[in-house]
Design a protein that fits this description.
Elements: H1 5-12, E1 23-25, H2 31-39, E2 47-49, H3 75-85, E3 112-115, H4 128-136, E4 141-143, H5 150-159, E5 162-166, E6 182-187, H6 195-203, E7 206-211, H7 218-224, H8 237-246
Parallel strand pairs: 1-2, 3-4, 3-5, 5-6, 6-7
Length: 256
C-alpha cells in the first residue's frame, strides 16, 4: 500500500493514465490489494502480476519512481492514501463486524486495540496469552486483521485511540489514524525499523517502541532465526504495563 499505490498516484497526475493498457504489480492476491486497485479505477483485467508473469514484452514501459526513500513514506503520499480510502465517517461503516469480542450493534468501534499476529508465519508474540490477559484489564480488544475486510480495518484504526501491536505490515493502517492516537509497537531487540514511526510523525501520533527480551544464548538464537526479520517477540510484561501507565492508561478490569 505504501510502495505501489503512491506510484500509481504519480501516474494519475501525469496525464497518461487513460493510455495505459496494463498495470504490472508484483502480486495482487490479497483481498486488500484487489480492492485498493479497483477503487483507484484499475479493473482486474488490466492487472498483470510479475510473480506469475516474470517475462513480459511491451512497446512502451512506464516505470514511476518510488514516492521516496524505502520506508520513508512522504507526506503527500499519506494525504493521498487518506483522501482515497478514508470515508468521512469511517468509524461507522455499515455492516462491519470486526471482532467476536464486541457486538456488531456497538455504536462505536473500540478505542483500544491489540493487533494479533497469531495467524502470521513468523514474528509472533511468544507470550501473547499473558500479553492479552494484561491488556484486557485495560479494556483492549483483540483483533486479527486477516479476518477483516479493508473497510473494517480502516474503521478500526480511524476510531482507535490506543493501539498495541507487534511490528508488521498491518500497522500500515496507521495512515488512517487520528492525530494524538497512541501507538505501542512491539519489536524484537534485533529488528527495529522506522517505517511506522515515520507515518506516526506525519500524522502527529504518539509512537513508542517496546523491545522484547533478547535471547541469552546467541548460538541458539542464530540457529532459530537466521534472519532478524523473522524473530519472534518475547514481551516484557512489566515494561508494557509501565508504558501503559506512562501513557495515562489505568486498568478498568481486575482479571488477576
Amino acid at each position: 500500500m505504501v510502495d505501489i499505490l503512491p506510484r500509481l498516484q504519480l501516474l494519475r497526475g501525469s496525464g497518461i493514465w487513460d493510455e495505459i493498457d496494463y498495470f504490472l504489480v508484483n502480486s495482487c492476491q490479497q483481498p486488500f490489494q484487489k480492492e485498493t486497485l479497483t477503487r483507484l479505477g484499475i479493473p482486474a483485467e488490466k492487472v498483470l502480476e510479475s510473480d506469475r508473469h516474470p517475462y513480459i514484452q511491451a512497446e512502451e514501459l512506464i516505470v514511476p519512481s518510488f514516492a521516496g526513500p524505502l520506508g520513508w513514506l512522504q507526506g503527500w503520499a499519506v494525504k493521498f492514501l487518506r483522501n482515497a480510502f478514508l470515508p468521512p465517517n469511517s468509524a461507522t461503516i455499515a455492516g462491519a463486524n470486526p471482532s467476536q469480542n464486541f457486538s456488531q450493534n456497538h455504536l462505536e468501534y473500540p478505542e483500544r486495540l491489540y493487533v494479533s499476529r497469531s495467524q502470521a508465519r513468523y514474528r509472533n508474540v511468544l507470550n501473547e496469552t499473558e500479553v492479552i490477559h494484561l491488556l484486557e484489564q485495560y479494556g483492549f480488544v483483540v483483533i486479527t486483521l486477516e479476518s477483516l475486510t479493508f473497510d473494517q480495518q480502516i474503521a478500526l484504526f480511524a476510531a482507535a485511540k490506543v493501539i498495541v501491536a507487534p511490528h508488521g505490515s498491518g500497522l500500515t493502517n496507521l495512515v488512517f489514524c487520528s492525530p494524538g492516537t497512541q501507538v505501542v509497537e512491539l519489536v524484537s531487540p534485533h529488528y527495529i525499523r522506522h517505517y511506522y514511526w515515520v507515518i506516526s510523525q506525519h500524522l502527529q501520533l504518539e509512537h513508542y517502541y517496546l523491545p522484547g527480551e533478547g535471547f541469552s544464548c546467541q548460538p541458539l538464537r542464530e540457529l532459530m532465526y537466521q534472519n532478524p526479520l523473522t524473530e519472534d517477540i518475547l514481551v516484557k510484561l512489566e515494561a508494557l504495563q509501565s508504558w501503559l501507565k506512562r501513557m495515562g492508561l489505568n486498568p478498568i478490569l481486575n482479571l488477576i
